[in-house]
Amino acid sequence: MTTLRIKRIGTHSVEAPAYATDGDAGLDLRAAESLTVWPGERHLVATGFAIAVPTGHVGLVHPRSGLAVKQGITVLNTPGTIDSGYRGEVKVLLLNTGSEPFIVNVGDRIAQLVIQEYVTVTVEETDELGTTARGAGGFGSTGVS
After folding, report:
1. Which residues lie across from 60 on neighbouring strands?
2. What is the overall mean pLDDT for the chain?
3. 18, 36, 59, 139: most buried by Cβ count inside 10 Å?
4. Looking at residue 115, what is its pLDDT?
5. How far apart are CA 13 and CA 32, in angstroms?
6. Integer distance in angstroms from the first to the last C-alpha of the chain?
């Protein structure tokens, strides 16, 4: 099992990122501040923790599905990317797509953090990419006609 080292920022009593149930892919991230996100507004919300993502991994910040479906709250830059070299406080960029103000209280679960392994690549410029059945077909090209 891989270890995620975390550091508390400030003197708050917010719970550390944690899995809600066995088998969850995402650790719950909680708000370390209280605020209101008005309809159409975005707000960068502090979590009160910095993390040390292990080398060869990335932290991906995802919206919480319950907040999205019930209140229209999402993470604007989904998924937010936390590189292994970053040591600042984790913050979540919430966007209110709903029609009502969304009140955030200290300790509320606002997003989830997935730690994932990745590969790095060598970039090679070329004149030819090869052919595939899809080719250059983009947005909606494989959907229903």
Report:
1. 81, 114
2. 95
3. 59
4. 98
5. 8
6. 46
- Indicate the SS3 state at residue 20: coil
Per-residue CA distances from 94 to 39, 58, 80, 102 (Å)? 11, 20, 11, 10
Share of the chain above pLDDT 90, in %: 88
- Using the CB atoms, write b or e for 97-135: b if 16+ within 10 Å: ebeeebebeeebebbbbebeeeeeeeeeeeeeeeeeeee
Amino acid (one-letter) located at 90: V
Q: Per-residue pLDDT tens for 6-41?
A: 999 998 899 999 999 999 999 999 999 999 999 999
Contacts of 26 (CB under 8 A, 6+ apart): 19, 62, 112, 113, 114
Q: Token digits for 121?
A: 């690549």
Whether residue 60 has pLDDT greater than 90: yes
| Matching residue, tokens 């080719």 | 135
Supply 74's token pair.
């999402």
* pLDDT band at residue 134 using 50, 70 and 90 as cut-offs: confident
